[in-house]
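Final report, Chapter 2: Outcomes

The project's central promise was a pipeline that accepts a single protein chain and returns its three-dimensional structure in a standardized token representation, suitable for archiving and comparison. That pipeline is now operational. To close this chapter, we reproduce one record exactly as it appears in the project archive, with the input sequence first and the structure output second.
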Amino acid sequence: MLKSNKLEVVIETPKGSRNKYAFDPKRKIFELKKVLPAGMSFPYDFGFVPSTRGGDGDPIDVLVLMDEPAFPGCVLNCRPIGVIEGEQISDGRTQRNDRVVAVQEDNHSYAAIAHIDDLGKPFVRELGQFFTNYHELWGDTFTVLGVRGPHDAHKCIDDGRKSARKRKRR
């Protein structure tokens, strides 16, 4: 488990951006990966938890709810409120690709949100639909398997840290 509720998240793509950025750890730079079509943008800041590894082999993804957009490379202190468990099919390969949902600790709009259920079912359904539509644009499939609360978000992050440590030892 996390030792506290705080979680450091590195933002790759800010809220409202049509550009999908990704951090390249070997080159230590952010690069433009994709451009969303007109009318589609990231609904919230999107980033990752450093020193973790998810089912897709990348760091654990985090969607951050906050008042104003951040910028690529910005480190935010957040508290996880849940996880959207997902399965992704790319190039015929099926893999887990869960997305932690977190609240930036100093924001005002989401300060009272403690559990992903506090956002309401329509809001959470829209988050899942964004990921489904996003993957569909690139010929992939994303299926929401379930939505879980903070306890499962912490477990996802802890498992991601263990996976990253195992990979480093190889």
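Archive annotation: The chain has a mean pLDDT of 94.
This record, like all others produced under the grant, will remain available to the consortium after the project formally closes.
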